[in-house]
């Protein structure tokens, strides 16, 4: 099975699932000629690697940790939903400390932001509710000011948003970078499980 979705997490994506030979044939013979080279296959890491091995026109573009939880978390919770007039502060925090974030205020599919402020009113940590569906809540854009990292602030805001989004849904999820051991550890402490994913792209 292959499902195409344009501009999902700032990329045109092809969610893939099934037996690798069948998926590769479907991509090669039907899907990729129809949708074009901007669409990137995305799925379980082993499946993506196997599909790329069968399609020389593709390369593995990245490997990720899909992390999700199916129940409310019981760790420290802090933060609140931010108002629209606070979003420029979110954008400034991202510009300074996480410019590669796929989630941006006003971005397609980005619904709202939660944050935690210090006594002086500065934003210390933020997280977006982005690309959420009726079944799955999704966290993105998790960012903490460097001078307050290591205090569990982003974890506390993520706990707040997780418990907000889990109501009426089957799970809350996010994509983490394998190389960000601190983030993976923090979400594991919140009860998130990990599944390895990968993405492919057309050879340049």
TrEMBL record:
<dbReference type="Pfam" id="PF08445">
    <property type="entry name" value="FR47"/>
</dbReference>
<protein>
    <recommendedName>
        <fullName>N-acetyltransferase domain-containing protein</fullName>
    </recommendedName>
</protein>
<dbReference type="InterPro" id="IPR000182">
    <property type="entry name" value="GNAT_dom"/>
</dbReference>
<dbReference type="InterPro" id="IPR016181">
    <property type="entry name" value="Acyl_CoA_acyltransferase"/>
</dbReference>
<dbReference type="InterPro" id="IPR013653">
    <property type="entry name" value="GCN5-like_dom"/>
</dbReference>
<feature type="domain" description="N-acetyltransferase">
    <location>
        <begin position="77"/>
        <end position="204"/>
    </location>
</feature>
């Amino acid at each position: 099975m292959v499902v195409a979705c344009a501009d999902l997490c700032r990329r045109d994506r092809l969610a893939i699932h099934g037996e690798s030979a069948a998926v590769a044939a479907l991509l090669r013979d039907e899907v990729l000629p129809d949708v074009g080279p901007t669409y990137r296959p995305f799925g379980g890491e082993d499946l993506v690697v196997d599909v790329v091995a069968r399609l020389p026109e593709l390369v593995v573009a990245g490997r990720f940790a899909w992390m999700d939880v199916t129940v409310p978390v019981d760790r420290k919770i802090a933060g609140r939903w931010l108002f629209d007039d606070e979003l420029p502060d979110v954008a400034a925090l991202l510009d300074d400390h996480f410019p590669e974030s796929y989630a941006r205020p006003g971005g397609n599919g980005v619904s709202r932001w939660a944050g935690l402020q210090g006594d002086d009113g500065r934003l210390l940590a933020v997280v977006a509710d982005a690309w959420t569906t009726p079944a799955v809540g999704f966290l993105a854009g998790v960012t903490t000011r460097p001078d307050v990292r290591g205090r569990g602030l982003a974890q506390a805001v993520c706990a707040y948003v997780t418990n907000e989004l889990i109501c009426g849904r089957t799970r809350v999820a996010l994509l983490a970078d394998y190389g960000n051991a601190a983030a993976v550890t923090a979400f594991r402490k919140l009860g998130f499980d990990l599944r390895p994913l990968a993405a492919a792209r057309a050879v340049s």
